[in-house]
Amino acid sequence: MGSDRDSGDRVSNGAADLVRAREQLLDGGMPRNPRLDAESLRSALVDLYELWLSSKGSELGITAESGLSVVAVGGLGRREMLPYSDLDLVLLHDNVDPARVAEVADQLWYPLWDAHIKLDHSVRTVPQALRVANDDLIAALGMLEARHIVGDVELSNLLIGGVRREWRNGIRSRFDELIAQAATRWQRSGEIAHRAEPDLKNGRGGLRDIQLLDALSIAQLTDAMPGLGPDVPGGGLKQAHRRLLDVRTELHRVAGRARDQLRAQDADEIGAALRIGDRFDLARTLSDSARTVSYSVDVGLRTAANALPRRGLARLRRMPVRRPLDEGVVEHAGEVVLARDARPQRDPGLIMRVSAASAQTGLPMSATTLNRLSEDAPELREPWPKDALNDLLVLLGAGRGTIDAIEALDRTGLWGRLLPEWGAVRDLPPRDAVHTWTVDRHLMECVAYASALVTRVARPDLLMLGALLHDIGKGRAGDHSVVGAELATHIGRRLGLWPSDVRTLSAIVRYHLLLPETATRRDLADPDTVQHVVDALDGDVQLLELLHTLAEADSLATGPGVWGDWKASLIGELVRRCRLVMAGDPLPTPEPIAAELLERAEAGGVHVDLRPGEGKYTYTVTVIAPDAAGLLSDAAGVLALHSLRVLSASVGGEGRSAINTFVVSPKFGDPPDAGLLRQELIRATSGELDLTALLAKREREATGVGPSPYAQAQPRVIWFDGSSAGQAILELRAEDRIGLLSRLAATFAAAGANVRWAKAVTMGSAVVDVFGLELGSDTGPARREAIEKAVLEVVPRPAPKKPDDPSTPGGDQVS
After folding, report:
1. Contacts of 165 (CB under 8 A, 6+ apart)
2. Which residues 6+ apart lie within 8 Å of 279 measured at CB?
3. 131, 153, 166, 149: which is closest to 90 by C-alpha?
4. Residue 706 has what DSSP assignment?
5. What is the dihedral of CA 397, 398, 404, 408, to 10 degrees?
6. Bridge-based pairing state of the strands 607-612 and 147-151
7. Burial grade of 413 (CB within 10 A; 0-12, 13-18, 19 or more)
8. Are 304 and 222 in contact (CB under 8 A)?
């Protein structure tokens, strides 16, 4: 009995020594025992546990020839041992007497239990362990991290090699379960980047996701550490992994026990220990790291899905078709990639076209494409070409797709290259609890909400840019509205905006808080209150309209409950009173026609001219032809049929001839010859071309599955009285679609409304089209209502949403 007790005491003392040594490592700070940094502490703990297990294994006869081995999984297996992490061990045996195995297991486990070390243990043969891995996905993921510690190394290698081999062979059948498990974990634990008290282990962008990438790498489906480009913020995935480990290490040290969730009260101490700063600095570091991990996981899962081996009938399917999306941009295998003939080195605007295509289609940009753009694409010269600005507006007008596209650009360093000012707001945490998102994500959310409101304003382009930049001054010294206004001026000039538009954009940023703060803090019945706003905006009705709409998008993007009926009614009343004081909106008028065009129109005949425009990919098409019902529809339809997107149009006439001028941009390649356009126009006007059917086919080809019936913004029709009897002016604010101008003109012709003049402008994906209509003797409400209904039938409209849907602009949000 005494001998047994002495043996037990030696075992217990051995584990007690392990605990004492661990505590000495954790209690560093004295001159003779300096405090270890987080990474050094983890390394020291790995060495400590390995030394103890190796010594104990030798003492128990777990040697190279014993048929026994100890394998570590979990943190020790990954060499990421945290202060209070569980010790995950497997005792493997092969043809060893069961009594001997049980004796060794007891003498190995009990000292650890007696020392209150958390232990997750199992005793198995290699075949038993492989069966467990095949039956249990969580167990399989754990065993992929297995590492030999002591004993028969060949036995350990049989397990390690067998688990990895079975994982590679069976990944096709387990991939869906792997994704479902990750999605469940993300839903349960939330996003680390946007949680006040994030779960560093299980949250989206956390350490479990790093292990997921490792598992995909072991399956030979992707790289464990995918490259994110040379300019990636934060140092890339490897740096993000280390930072997450460091924070979790210090969290254990501060809490004095195992903990995964970072509590707010511990953040300052952890930030100071890691020399990061205060809790806000720590939150910013975690946001950057978690978003880098999240993006890498998205890339890894897509890459893995495309790399999965095909079986059965799937092996006989044709390779994915490369569907053109824009100049130099195609869809391939569910991703946006570069066309084979794309030359990033010579095409600075390619970044914007790729990202705009991604946002519009909802397809992710290929990581390879983004890396290639990061390495090869030159800087956009200042001022930006109009093509690049228009692609930026398309990107910003794509709703929720905008967020994913900008996030991908930002994680690979491309967004910061396009917008250097973004660095100050990237991952910047909010300073008050009402804000849900980091500042940069809030700006993206604001853009997404604003995209559903663009038809409320006459300048959707300035609304989208204002939404993107309204908080760009944060993260710097001084009033962020004042600082941001100055930055917006520089950005507006860089983008190539007109000087008047630069001033408006700067004013949007400067006064983006004016309406909500005035409406909720001052007496609206006091004339001085209204005059204060009017004076600040210099009586600019258009600026007032933009600020009114931005106030709603900004509130919706801030967090639940920030926008509601009370706030909406107060701001609405303030805006109404300001409009009464300000001058009214000017009536739309036709564009003047150049004298040389008037002379050609007088000569009669059909003429089509095509000349290079101001931008690299823009052209001016002038159509002069005998005026007749349907001419505008036919001319616009022929342009759309040849993949020429109408960026602006001016429609007028002289005598019996119509003069239509279009600024167009080819979707791909060079525009067709003007002679071909003339022949097609003559065929269309004679009825030889069924433009309606051909445009429908072209739309199906462009979208791959047919036109989407939904848009981001609700279309809006505004009527004005014409300058003389029988005339009216219709302004349409809507989202664009292939052949929209042709469809609208055909609608007017079918309704018996003659288009005397028109001005059409496309800004990104939004259009503001004004038509001077001749209605004859019937210009009453019923006639206008019928025309309006017909117009709305051909424009994209949003999908219906539930009244309590928090993503619906204008709807209340409930905390």
Report:
1. none
2. 264, 267, 268, 271
3. 149
4. -
5. -60
6. unpaired
7. buried
8. yes
Q: Which helix (H) or strand (E) holds 283?
A: helix 279-307
Measure the CA–CA gap between 288 and 270, rounded to whole angstroms.
17
Nearest Cα to Cα of residue 406 among 552, 560, 282, 295: 295
Say whether 659 sits in a helix, a strand or coil: strand
The CA-atom distances, in angstroms, between 293 and each of 243, 306, 620 are 11, 20, 46
Distance of CA 5 to the CA centre of its chain: 64
Instruction: Tell the burial category of 368 from Cβ atoms under 10 Å away from its Cβ (0-12, 13-18, 19+).
Output: middle
pLDDT tens, 638-684?
A: 999 999 999 999 999 888 899 999 999 998 889 999 999 999 999 99
Tokens standing for residue 796: 């994209």
Q: Which of 357, 394, 392, 354 is nearest to 376 (CA)?
A: 354
Instruction: Give the distance from CA 421 to its chain's centroid.
Output: 18
Residues 357 and 328 sit within 8 Å (Cβ to Cβ): no
Partners of residue 660 on adjacent β-strands: 623, 651
Burial class (CB in 10 A: 0-12, 13-18, 19+), 808: middle
CA 267, 199, 45: angle at the middle one, nearest 5? 75
The one-letter amino acid at 630? G
Task: Give the list of residues 6+ apart from residue 311 with CB closer than 8 angstroms, or none.
Answer: 172
How confident is the model over 737-748, as pLDDT tens digits? 999 999 999 999
CA distance 722 to 731: 12
> DSSP state, 364?
P
Bridge partners (DSSP) listed for residue 664? 619, 646
Note whether 373 and 480 are within 8 A (CB): no
Given this model, what pLDDT does residue 231 score?
Answer: 66
Inter-residue contact 373 to 687 (CB < 8 Å): no
310 C-beta neighbours (distance < 10 Å), count: 10
The answer, yes or no, to whether residue 315 has pLDDT greater than 90, is no
Which residue has 């993107």 as its token pair? 468
Helix (H, G, I), strand (E, B) or coil at 760: strand
Rounded alpha-carbon distances, angstroms, from residue 219 to 74, 167, 175, 522, 655: 19, 6, 10, 63, 74
Residue 695 near residue 355 (C-beta atoms within 8 A): no
pLDDT digits over 747-787, tens only? 999 999 999 999 999 999 999 999 999 999 888 999 999 99
Q: Are 223 and 56 in contact (CB under 8 A)?
A: no
**The pTM is what?**
0.90
121 to 66, 117, 468, 476, 715: CA distances (angstroms)? 20, 12, 53, 52, 63
**Pseudo-torsion of CA 153, 155, 158, 159, nearest 10°?**
-100
Q: Are 730 and 719 in contact (CB under 8 A)?
A: yes
Round to whole Å and give the CA distance between 87 and 493: 59
Q: DSSP letter at 751?
A: T
**3-state class (DSSP) for residue 680:** helix
Quick: pLDDT tens for 166-206: 999 999 999 999 999 999 999 999 999 999 899 999 999 99
Residue 224 pLDDT level (bands cut at 50, 70, 90): low
Q: Where are the beta strands (DSSP E) in 225-380?
A: 323-326, 329-332, 335-338
Report d(CA 224, CA 210) in Å as an integer. Answer: 8
SS3 for 616-642 is CCCEEEEEEEECCCCHHHHHHHHHHHC
Q: Any idea what DSSP says for residue 348?
A: T
Q: Are strands 754-763 and 323-326 parallel, antiparallel or unpaired?
A: unpaired
Residue 313 has pLDDT above 90, yes or no: no
Q: What is the DSSP string of 755-800?
A: EEEEEEEEETTEEEEEEEEE-TT--SHHHHHHHHHHHHHSS-BPPP
Structure tokens at 39: 């990474």
Predicted pLDDT at 4: 44
